[in-house]
Amino acid sequence: MRGEGLALAFGLALAAACGAPQAAPGPAATPPAAELLWSVAGRPTPAARDAVAALVDAGAKGLDPGDYDAPALAAALHELDRAREAAPGVAERFDSALDASFSRFLSDLHAGRVRPASVGVGVGEGHGSFDARAAAGAAAHQGDVAAAIAAVEPELFLYRRVEEALGRYRALAADPNAAPVRIPPVVHPGDPLASAPALRRWLTAVGDLASAEATEPAAEGRYDAPLVEAVQRFQGRHGLEPDGVIGAATARALAVPAAIRVRQLELTLERLRWLPPLGGQRIVAVNVPAFELWAFDAQRLQGRPALQMRVVVGRAVRWQTPLLAGALNQVEFHPDWEVPPRIAREEIVPLLSQQPGYLDAHDMELLRGNTPVPPTPENVAAIGASVRVRQRAGPQNPLGRVKFTFPNPESVYLHDTPTRRAFRHSRRDFSHGCVRLEDAPGLALWLLSDVPDWSPERVEESLAGEASFTVRLPRPVPIFLFYATALVEPDGRLLFFEDVYGHDRALERALAARRSGASASPGRTW
């Protein structure tokens, strides 16, 4: 792809210099002069210059300028400007190539470069049809390339903030004086630290240490209080326990170069493009690697969330929480727990053989259809097939006092939990795939605040009682189980997280395969 583009740029330059037509490589047809969008009388229009500039600067959007043949187009534009008289066919080939590249650019900005389903993500199939060629043509006719780009990008405030953060980290990556620091762990507050000056420079560069927070000359080689506080801020932004101790995890995070963080931000922009338009709806979003839930009121999508809490998600090794979109439609108070067949087979059955009274001790029962059956060897052998395990509502039930459901093929849901210690950990992948909530009553209050006859007092009474019942939401609330290892909080704080499920690596492979496939595709003009 890129080699063809450079070859054609050279051909255009030669044609312009010699005044002779130059055939374009590949089978692409030259459009009639009457159909030219980006050229007038053999010269590029102002919109063409803006479009080429946007492609050259595609990196600012987290995209690769080479994917849109930006170097070749920029070279061709330069040569067309220099030529006294454009050779026959040169402007036509430039026009056709720019239209194809700019259309592809708009398409990628609108819905991303990779189909989410191809990397196992069930988010992003709600964009509907989009005619990128028509959008590019409108930009050329109206002469407003910037407006065309703004119209196709996500409207989310989060997208803009991530894009701004990308600009800062791209500048960091290009600055030879802004280098990460390697520190052998473990370093405690007050310890000698020979690399303290380098640590100070890096923490200043990434914004965790204000340049005014100078250290005393006597503490130049020591891990002093200003550095400790800056490291705590750094730890808080990187999903680490903010204890100020430079242990192995903190040392690894401090050694990550800005170029890697740039890539994380680029992948977040790609994933944000997958999201469908949200309109004026309330939404709930769970960012899996951040172990956080946000709930936004419709009128506050541009500001702070109405609700934010820690969550526990599925274990990285065997029980990953699926990434998908849906609509929360039910709040279930004091739910029973229908033990998923796989958990029943792998975890409950072995316990039954070791502890004959296990079911009674945990307020569980076996069901064949809807009929309770005794734990005979035959019934135990059928668990996970024709026999189900159910745990009744109560203090031992792992779903706690309330559960939130939405139709989805993975049968996952959000729920309360009687066990609180997991929320004290910075990394919280402990569940079997469903999402445990730190403040499930808070989510119940927020969801039901939009339902007639459900006052906060009624919600509190229902949570405190024992009756099991379900409330259907008259207006289901969109929910996204999402994945972003770089994100900007509503208060502007830039966060980075570990790629706990390896989804960043999978997306990298998909993007590389796309580039490889495009390079090998025949018929590309540029």
Chain-wise SSE layout:
Elements: H1 2-18, E1 39-40, E2 43-44, H2 46-56, H3 70-82, H4 90-111, H5 132-142, H6 145-152, H7 157-174, H8 196-205, H9 225-237, H10 248-254, H11 258-274, E3 283-287, E4 292-296, E5 307-314, E6 324-333, E7 337-339, H12 341-354, H13 358-361, E8 364-368, E9 371-373, H14 377-381, E10 387-391, E11 402-405, E12 414-415, E13 429-431, E14 435-437, H15 440-448, H16 456-464, E15 469-482, E16 486-488, E17 494-496, H17 503-520
Parallel strand pairs: 3-15, 5-13, 12-14
Antiparallel strand pairs: 1-2, 3-4, 4-5, 5-14, 6-11, 6-15, 7-10, 8-9, 8-10, 11-12, 16-17
Helix pairs in contact: 1-3, 2-3, 2-4, 3-4, 4-5, 5-6, 7-11, 8-9, 15-16
What features would you describe in this structure?
The protein has 17 helices and 17 strands. The longest helix has 22 residues, at 90-111. It has an eight-stranded mixed barrel with strand order 3-4-5-14-12-11-6-15. Mean pLDDT is 88; it is low at 1-33 and 520-526. The protein starts with a helix and ends in a 6-residue tail after the last helix. It is globular, with a radius of gyration of 29 Å. It has four domains: 2-154, no CATH class; 196-256, Muramoyl-pentapeptide Carboxypeptidase, domain 1, CATH 1.10.101; 278-335 and 393-483, L,D-transpeptidase catalytic domain-like; 341-357 and 367-391, no CATH class. Helix content is 39%, strand content 15%. It has helices at residues 2-18, 46-56, 70-82, 90-111, 132-142, 145-152, 157-174, 196-205, 225-237, 248-254, 258-274, 341-354, 358-361, 377-381, 440-448, 456-464, 503-520; strands at residues 39-40, 43-44, 283-287, 292-296, 307-314, 324-333, 337-339, 364-368, 371-373, 387-391, 402-405, 414-415, 429-431, 435-437, 469-482, 486-488, 494-496. By secondary structure, it is of the alpha+beta class.
